[in-house]
Amino acid sequence: MIPKHHWPLLLAWAGLAGPAPAHVTLEQPKAAAGSPYKAVLRVAHGCEGSPTHTVTVRLPEGFRGARPMPKAGWTIAIRKAALDRPYDSHGRSVTEDVVEVSWQAGSREAWLDDAWYDEFSVRGQLPAQAGPLWFKVQQVCERGRWDWSEVPASGTATQGLKAPAVLLEVMPDAGAGHRH
Ligand SMILES: [Cu+2]
Fold first, then answer.
1. 22-152+162-171 adopts what CATH topology?
2. Which pLDDT score is estimated for 19?
3. What is the DSSP string of 6-59?
4. Domain ranges (residues) in the chain
5. Ligand 1: centre distance to CA 48 (Å)
6. What are 36-71's pLDDT values in tens digits?
7. Is residue 117 left, alpha or beta, with left meaning phi > 0 and alpha meaning psi from -120 to 50?
8. What spacing in Å lies between the alpha carbon of 47 and ligand 1's midpoint?
9. I want to staple 111 with a disulfide (CB 3.0 to 4.6 A). Which of 51, 71, 124, 180 is the partner?
10. Distance from the CA of 154 to the center of ligand 1, in angstroms?
């Protein structure tokens, strides 16, 4: 028995011609505006057979207060930047925020083999406004790299893009507010 909420996904797969694009995907590609969200990025393969040792995510504007989840064997680096539009959190003005998170394998043993998949998680607060958010992911391998950074000129369809950025659809939420 397949859970009901998986049906649209199966239908989407059935409609694809040729091999399914695995790439880098989000475990939950839709979430409610104004809610906390754990972005679980799934890296499904390496670079033409080569293992992955570094994954860097550029967070979309509006994804606030990001906190990466540690991974055994990997070290985390965070890059912060000043915000064009500061915001309030718990009564304090936030003027800079995390804009990029990077995981780097600490040793060869931790490398992600091309035949395996792994997950990289970062939690944050979604904007109150609905709309598409794009996570741009750089995947560096022993040989070669992927820049999952292509965004369609309009709309959210990524068909035909060789290395699409990872789309999160932020859906309107009637009861939106600041939650934890
Ligand atoms: Cu792929």
1. Immunoglobulin-like (2.60.40)
2. 44
3. GHHHHHHHHT--SS---SEEESS-EEETTSEEEEEEEE---BTTBPEEEEEEEP
4. 22-152+162-171
5. 10
6. 999 999 999 999 999 999 999 999 999 999 999 999
7. beta
8. 9
9. 51
10. 22
